Amino acid sequence: MKIAFLAALLLGIGSAAGAQEAPPAREASAPLTLRKCLEIGLEQNYDVRIVRNEERVSDNNATAGNAGMLPTVDLSAGYTGTLDNDRTVTPRNGDATTETGVYDQTANVGLAVNWTLFDGLRIRTNYKRLKEMQQMGALKTRITIEDFMASLTAEYYNYIQQTLRLENFRYAVSLSRERLRITEARVQVGNFSRLDLLQARVDFNADSSKYMSQHELVTASRIRINELLANENLDERFSIPDSVIRVNATLDWNDLLAKTLSANASLLMAEHDSSLAELDLKTVLARNYPYVNLTTGYGYTYNRYGTGGNLSRGTLGLNAGVKVGFTIFDGNRRREQRNARIGVENAQLTQQRLEQSLRADLSNFWQAYRNNLEVILLEEENLIAAKENYEIAMERYLLGDLPGIEMREAQKSLLDAEERILTAQYNTKLCEISLQQISGNVMVYLE
User: Fold this and answer.
1) 221 and which of 159, 282, 369, 374 could share a cystine (Cβ 3.0–4.6 Å)?
2) How many Å apart are CA 439 and CA 437, to the nearest integer?
3) Pick the residue with more confidence: 14 or 201?
4) Domain ranges within the chain, ordered by starting residue
5) Which residues form the signal peptide (predicted)?
6) 225/235 Cα distance (integer angstroms)
């Protein structure tokens, strides 16, 4: 009775494990394809939204006014009052005159315009710098989007991988359950020993444990996808129509290399860094030239006097002036010029180092990509052989010609073959995604 109860309990555990993969409480209204995931993520992902806002800031900053190319116009008004005691002594006879409580007033209103006409091309350089920053803002957005798309695509296929692995573990549980059933029946008729039954039960329990643990990995992947999609409910369930990991086996090395050198966003960003370093040098060199400032204004001034022959005076008019200057010596110019030239050299070296690093990464991923394609072909052959081996082993096991340990080994070989081909497919897909990202072609997953 105790053995029967344990067997029923173990079978119940397997049934409960299978029940965990029952249809979820709330399915998505439509299958969530990779393209749909990417479209939703590009609209909702927090990192993408933040970097797009930052790009808007760089766009707003790239103006002639922010560079200092436009004049400044100030409208001002003021009032001043002074209360004095005056004592005046005439120079001829020394007579002194004293007046107390003399209250003088001045009121003015005016419009002033200041404009830097020339400052050694520094303003024009600043405008070019802002334009460079604008383009770098767009590139930063592109880099963030490409990183997001690569991460989401990889996680999408990881979810497929974990789901397929869960199916494999479920299949393993069903095989172990069938073996346990056969063993129990054989023990009752005396063909198998109690040791065979205990071993079959241990294997069934082990497979059931793996199956239940795999649920955690599937759930973790689902939560990660919801996080990337910025869903409020991180545990939201969805259905994915893809049931296999489809690998693009048509990538071409020469095409990838050419696109990497011409379209990689990080490499383009490094080119803009070099341009900024050259603009920094031009900014320092601008101090070798004179500057010309124009000032002009139009205003009205009213004065009211507390004493004297005139009670008040009002003036209305236009004023203008030009200021030309030249900084002869400031003690830092040569040092800053030398440092700016070093900055240009370092920016160029950084760009060259990045290009070399990208070439190395591309070569490594390409080698792994090609090797994994070969592994997939090899594992497909192994899977066919493992399935045939298992079918033969099951027939012998049913006839009583094969021990339980060898039957388990045939089952393990089949499951290992399925696991290896699944891993090879996923690894190949990761290499493919990395190659597309490095070459600046990751947007292909939106097609």
Assistant:
1) 159
2) 5
3) 201
4) 2-62+119-290+326-446
5) 1-19
6) 10
Residue 138 pLDDT more than 50?
A: yes
Query: What's residue 92's pLDDT?
Result: 65
Q: How confident is the model at residue 94 (pLDDT cuts 50, 70, 90)?
A: low
Q: Which residues contact 362 (CB under 8 A, 6 or more apart)?
A: 256, 257, 260, 435, 438, 439
- Separation CA 321–CA 316 (nearest Å): 17
Q: How far apart are CA 240 and CA 158, in angstroms?
A: 12
Instruction: Look at the pTM and tell me if it is higher than 0.85.
Output: no
- Contact residues for 199 (Cβ-Cβ < 8 A; gap 6+): 404, 405, 408
Q: Across-strand partners of 304?
A: 105, 312
- Most confident by average pLDDT, 292-306, 309-323, 374-388: 374-388
What crossing angle do the helices spanning 122-189 and 333-399 adopt, rounded to 10°? 10
Q: What is the CATH number of domain 2-62+119-290+326-446?
A: 1.20.1600.10
* pLDDT average, residue stretch 37-61: 96
**Backbone CA torsion sign across 71, 280, 348, 52:** negative
Q: Could you count the other beta carbons within 10 Å of the beta carbon of residue 128?
A: 19
> Per the structure block, which two tokens stand in for 397?
């096991």
In the chain, the largest separation of any two C-alpha atoms, in whole Å, equals 151
Identify whether the C-beta of residue 218 lies closer than 8 Å to the C-beta of residue 166: yes
In DSSP notation, 32-48 reads --HHHHHHHHHHH-HHH
Range from 88-97, 126-135, 364-373, 409-418 carrying the lowest mean pLDDT: 88-97
The overall average pLDDT reported for the chain is 87
Token representation of residue 429: 């897909």
3-state secondary structure at position 92: coil
> Cα separation of 17 and 215, whole Å?
9
Per-residue b/e over 192-228, b at no fewer than 16 CB within 10 Å? beeebbebbbebbbebbebbbebeebbeebbebbbeb
- For residue 297, give the H/E element and its range: strand 291-304
At what angle are helices 194-228 and 404-438 packed, to 10 degrees?
20
Of 416, 388, 404, 376, nearest to 210 (Cα)?
416
Strands (E), 59-191: 72-89, 96-118
Express each pLDDT in 340-372 by its tens digit. Answer: 999 999 999 999 999 999 999 999 999 999 999
Per-residue pLDDT of 209-236, as tens digits, reads: 999 999 999 999 999 999 999 999 999 9
Cβ contacts of 52 within 8 Å, gap of 6 or more: 141
Whether residue 42 contacts residue 144, with contact meaning beta carbons closer than 8 Å, is answered with: no
CA 343 to chain centre: 27
H/E stretch holding 66 reads: helix 64-67
